[in-house]
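Following up on my earlier thread - several people asked me to post the actual chain instead of describing it. Fair enough. Here it is, all 157 residues.
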Amino acid sequence: MTGLLIVILILVLSTVFGLWRRHVDGKVRKVENTTLLRTLETGETVSNNVSETLLGESLGSQATFVQFSSKICGTCHQTRATILDVIGGMPGVKLVEISVETGLGLWDTRFNIRRTPTVLILDVGGVVRVRAVGGMRKEDVFNGLTMVLSSNGVAND
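Reply from S.P.:
Thanks for posting it. Predicted structure:
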């Protein structure tokens, strides 16, 4: 009887965790502190801006999605396709994908990248305005982009 109760408890806890994870995955969160972040190792204060040098590519003229992915992550492939579907044909909005296999370096300490996919949405100046962890749905991508474009002073029609 005790074994059955343990199994039932594990099933209930697993279900609750799964439902919670489904609810929070991919939800966009506004990055409140857009000027400064602390690095984990040194405690030094660093800028929250992403330069084209750090990114390795030019920024979008309106917004830039930076997605951290791994080859074995199925959700990463789905998230990439969803982002491209939403931003396809939008001038000035681009997606840059960074593979975690090549080493995160400064990214993991500066922006706390701990899971794939993680998506940062940068404004026109390269400031991280929005962050999402986990698979994103179309409405999440659209909501994040709207937040960034409104911070740029661009109306989203």
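Strands lie at 29-30, 36-38, 45-47, 63-69, 93-99, 118-122, 128-133. That should answer part of your original question.
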